[in-house]
Amino acid sequence: MRHGKKVNHLSRQAGHRKLMLANMACSLIEHKRINTTVAKAKALKVYFEPLVTKSKEDTTHNRRIVFSYLRNKYAVTELFREVAAKVGDRPGGYTRIIKLGNRLGDNADMAMIELVDFNELYNATKKEAKKTTRRSRSAKAAAAPVAEAPAATEAPAVDTEENNNAAE
């Protein structure tokens, strides 16, 4: 029975597990995405997301709490500057886990965990959709004369053909 077993121990002792998750969190902050097993990715998500929530409010107390988890001052600095700036309006769900298949060596389930706001492929489509919904009538009126301008350039080409026909 699994009564009260809320933490996946990942076949490691407590000290090793905490240091491994801290190193993985630092790598995630540095590279914005990492490949690992599904079990480690799920454990990292539980470990990392409260730290991002703490980083949204930049106080000395929050920096010290996050540093006690990460143990890397460069990762803490980047988390509070770059990552917190991008996720400031997001209420949660800062990471995404994408399953990749099985590893060749031992057939372990592999996954990629990434920071959601740093993926340009997914965010590019969302930004374009916002631009299309915010157009006003003045933008449509300004676009109409632009559409007529190529027609005006085609008209002289027709005139030259008429002149050729008239010459014959």
List keywords for this structure.
3 strands; 50s Ribosomal Protein L17, Chain: A; globular; 2 domains; 63% helix; three-stranded antiparallel β-sheet; mainly alpha
Question: In words, what does this structure look like?
Answer:
With 168 residues, the chain is mainly alpha-helical. The chain has 2 domains: 14-119, Ribosomal protein L17 (50s Ribosomal Protein L17, Chain: A); 135-167. The protein is 63% helix and 12% strand. It is built from 6 helices and 3 strands; from the N terminus they run αβαααββαα. The protein has helices at 14-31, 38-55, 60-70, 73-86, 120-133, 137-167, and strands spanning 33-37, 95-102, 109-115. Strands 1-3-2 form a 3-stranded antiparallel β-sheet. It starts with 13 loop residues before the first helix and ends with a helix. The model has no long low-confidence stretch (mean pLDDT 85).
Compact summary:
63% of the residues lie in helices and 12% in strands. It has 6 helices and 3 strands, in the order H-E-H-H-H-E-E-H-H. Strand 2 and strand 3 (109-115) form a beta hairpin.
Query: Main beta sheet, described?
Result: 3 strands, antiparallel
Query: Helicity level, as a percent range?
Result: 55-70%
Major sheet: order of its strands? Answer: 1-3-2
The fold-level CATH name of the largest domain is 50s Ribosomal Protein L17, Chain: A
Number of helices: 6
Give the percentage of residues in beta strands.
Answer: 5-15%
Q: Element order, helices and strands?
A: HEHHHEEHH
The CATH architecture of the largest domain would be: Alpha-Beta Complex
Mean pLDDT: 85
Tell me how many strands there are.
3
Number of domains: 2
Organism: Flavobacterium akiainvivens
Biased composition (Low complexity): 139-158
GO molecular function, one term: structural constituent of ribosome
Protein name: Large ribosomal subunit protein bL17
